[in-house]
Amino acid sequence: MVRKRNPNGAGTITKRKDGRHMGRAYVTTPDGTRERLTVYGKTWEEAHDKLLKALAQEKAGIPQTVKSWKLGDWLDHWLEHVVKVSKRPSTYVLYELMTRLYLKPGLGKRPLNRLTVKDCQTFFNQRIAAGDGESKVRNMRTTLSAALTRAMKEELIQRNVARLVEFSFENKDADKNEPWTPDEVRRFLKTATGDQLYPAFVMVFYLGLRRGEALGVRWADVDWTGREIRIRKQSQRAGHSLHLSDVKTRAGRRPLPLLSVVRDALTDHQDLQNEWRDKAGDKWTESGLVITTRTGRQVEPRNFNRSFDRIRAAAGLRHLTPHGARHTCASLLGELRVEPRAAMEILGHSRSSVTLEIYQKASSEARRRALKKVEKRLRGD
């Protein structure tokens, strides 16, 4: 029997002891180096076809992956060489946590280039069935999707299957974060008067600031003469330390009017902070921040949450998260028919669709007024 030979320049094919045929040829990898690619086939023809396909891509100038990544190994590589050096510390902490606790145990052994929509859908369905909340599951998908997007850029995979996963959550607690009415906001702020975080609460409700933005305002950002407050920084916890970093997007960097109620709160707080500085003496840490501890340090975001909930309970108000407080401002902008573009700039949204989505979620009071109008019309009043 005449042994089949591969033509020169078409790689080599040999038969292994296990009966399979192994084809090998040099190709260009995504980083520009030349490495030997190995393919396998049950027959010589199958191995030959795979080699031809690889060499056709080589001729077309398409880089090819030589290393066969497991998803878990790729996630580790991505975290260390991409996320850690290019993303915020808080982003790295979140991605690392989602990877270590959930993605690697659940999907880590899957070959990166053979990960399917079904694999991901099954994994996320199992996490939801296990009782994981919507926010946590979405963070898992965000992490996986970001890692797969990078793999696509490096031409390790052809598509991002994480983007094709669909979720179905029962929103049992939707009413718990219904925006407050103006009366409820006034009751909360009246109860919060005198609290060291009072100016932050005012900025969240009146200016629609995020929690981190309110805690990241510096005195240098307050333009008393121009009656303006510039949102530039945000306070975030990343692992075991607090960071003052730039806001995430260009849209987040925004000037806002220094409303009289905000100006009054800041003026009173400036006097209070000066008293703290004198009392602390050498123990004072000069951070330049508006909202600080009694020794000048950054305030823990979770302590903001605790204070918010404590004051809410003391005021006898229904449940609302600090982020829901920001949505209260957004919802009022919608009810007052503020132009969406203006609202988008006030809230620091980078996409108008986010602002419009909030606008479309009418408050219970707005729904009541709307149906009252329907009732009046149908009754002929």
Automatic annotation (TrEMBL):
Domain Core-binding (CB): 69-152
Region annotated Disordered, chain positions: 1-21
Domain Tyr recombinase stretches: 175-372
GO BP term, example: DNA integration
Annotated Pfam families: Phage_int_SAM_3, Phage_integrase
Family assignment from sequence similarity: Belongs to the 'phage' integrase family.
Protein name from the UniProt record: Tyrosine-type recombinase/integrase
Native source species: Actinocrinis puniceicyclus
